[in-house]
Amino acid sequence: MSNPSKPARLRALHYPLFAAALLLLLAPGLALAAPAGTVVGLSGASVVESGGARGAVKLGQPVQVGDTVEVPADGKLKLRMADGSVISVAAGTRLTIAAYGVDAAGQRQEARLSLAQGLLRAVVAPVERPASFEVNTAVGAAAVRSTDWFVEGSATAMQVGVLTGSVEMTSGATQRREMIPARWGARMEAGRDPVPPRVWSPAEFAAFIARTDVK
Amino acid sequence: MGSGKSCAMAAVAALVLAVCSPADQAFAYSATGDRLFPATLVLPQIAPGDEFYIWADTLPQTPSGDGTGTRQSSFTAVYAKTITDRLGVVVEETWTRLDRVAKGSWSAMQNLDTEIKYLAIDDQPREFLLTLGLDREWGGTGAQRVGAFSSGATTPRVYFGKGMGDLDIGYLRPLAVAGLVGYQIADSPPRPNLVTPGFVVEYSIPYLQSKVQSLDLPEFVRGLTPMTEVLFTIPAGRSLGARTTALIAPGLSYAGTGWEFAIEGLVPASRASGRGVGAIAQFHLSLDFVAAETIGRPLFSAP
Question: Which listed residue, of A183, A207, B183, B234, carries a Cα 20 to 30 Å from A215's Cα?
Fold first, then answer.
């Protein structure tokens, strides 16, 4: 004899489980959908690639994890990120927000940017516990916790200049690292160790500031 | 008789000066573009900087009778501070021990030495820099028994540094040459005036690894810069018993994070420079690296 009430009981049991599973699956999606940052400064006709679609960047527009912004040769762009960090992007830059996670208190947990080409200045918001802020380029990576710094990248080289705090630059090819303190800078070429850092002149910093200054 | 004694004293003084010259002038790293000139041990620094360094050296001497020196050993400390990004001052103090023939040793301080430096040219693409310096040795601040002059001296200097990285010469690009020419003007006789040229030839392994080709070298080797320094002192005008000296110093510098350690042999190339092979070792701390946001900053600088 079959028991007609058993499937019904099972279905009744499965619905809440399914709903809970669906909620769990959606929750990260909802979190991912939260903006990683917002455009707070803009000049020129920058473009954002988001979800396969390209569109003009607008002031106040949110940017998401996975978005790529392209700043033209006559443009500049400034982003305020979810943790309060400010990223100023110079002309001729292509930048992807590879990861940007913040907790409920707005504290950064992970930030990873991919700089295919160009220059950016990052004023990185301090956080209470260790949480890196990393920029990857074709030739290596630069990581900080809290600082005001510049990173310029291309297919063949990168360079980092530090106004305050310190930055660790790592060669993608040799894994050699150089710590770069405030007022110092260093370069790195594809396939090689980082060049030992040195003190940068005010003129060198001024040039980078001018290139990333967004009114 | 009196004249002979004066000449003998001048000769001893010149000898001491010749031996002291390296110890009076050591320098730390300087940089232009991607070229870093590591701390040398015999030549003065070629650019202003924020640094503290110490070195010890010892060199056998040529004695000329009882009571004259057989070996001189020194311990020196130097503090360099930038006033602006291109202008800096240097303060240097040396303690000397003089071992003597048939007598006990003497030990005391040398004259206080100071210098002001201005970085006039910093051509980064060509890895070239040029600095103007004015050194002042304060006479009478040290002990004459270890060779310090009662008379001071002022030395205008021109420093230069040139890396070969901008030339298409393959594995020779890590080569660099740096040096100086100085003219030491004594306040009064019997101290002679001297021309003090010197140079260093160096091959930077860090430059090789970062700018030419990353080779699979042991960690220690990656931080090395082999170099050879050469320093001359040439009497100018009335020699007052001083003779031309030449000192050759081959050695190695190892660069750590914010510090350097270097060691060199001291090989006199003339009898007036010394009697046998000596040695010098130096530890250098880059204050602009380890205290970049405090004492390592220029006093006046753009943000």
Answer: A183
